[in-house]
């Protein structure tokens, strides 16, 4: 009988490197973070196939690996998403009204 072995599928597609994508988990070889995939899927309702079709250099298995990583680290990734949302809101508040938002 042969010994069982595990295959680290997520590690094949997901990378975490200091100084790259802010040290956040991302698709290996891309600047697409796991949190981007999570937002597109969970909040915007895009299917994994739609995400891969929108970003043709992104392989479908990488999208599924990102979703698996997200579901395994949901609290951490959700906290990153919330922190980014707060940062954007703060920057928008500092910038004041935009010409694009003003009525003429």
Going by CATH, the architecture would be Orthogonal Bundle
Radius of gyration: 17 Å
- Just give the CATH class: Mainly Alpha
What percentage of the residues does DSSP assign to strands (E)? under 5%
Question: What level of helicity do the residues show?
Answer: 40-55%
According to CATH, the fold-level topology is: Arc Repressor Mutant, subunit A
Characterize the structure shown.
The structure is a single chain. This protein is 55% helix and 4% strand. It is mainly alpha-helical. The mean pLDDT is 88. It has one domain: Winged helix-like DNA-binding domain superfamily/Winged helix DNA-binding domain (Arc Repressor Mutant, subunit A, Orthogonal Bundle), CATH 1.10.10. The termini are far apart. Helix 2 packs across helix 4. It is elongated, with a radius of gyration of 17 Å.
Please summarize what this structure is:
This protein has 104 residues and is mainly alpha-helical.
For this entry, give a set of tags:
104 residues, mainly alpha, Arc Repressor Mutant, subunit A, two-stranded antiparallel sheet, 2 strands, 55% helix, elongated
Q: How is the topology of this model organized?
A:
Blueprint (H helix, E strand, L loop, with lengths): L8 H5 E2 L10 E2 L6 H10 L4 H7 L5 H13 L1 H22 L9
Antiparallel strand pairs: 1-2
Helix pairs in contact: 2-4, 2-5
């Amino acid at each position: 009988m042969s010994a069982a072995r595990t295959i680290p599928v997520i590690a094949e597609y997901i990378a975490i490197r200091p100084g790259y994508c802010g040290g956040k988990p991302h698709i290996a070889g891309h600047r697409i973070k796991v949190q981007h995939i999570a937002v597109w899927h969970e909040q915007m309702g895009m299917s994994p196939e739609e995400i891969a079709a929108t970003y043709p250099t992104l392989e479908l298995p990488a999208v599924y690996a990102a979703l698996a990583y997200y579901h395994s680290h949901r609290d951490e990734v959700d906290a990153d998403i919330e922190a980014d949302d707060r940062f954007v809101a703060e920057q928008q508040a500092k910038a004041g009204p935009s010409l694009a938002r003003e009525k003429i």
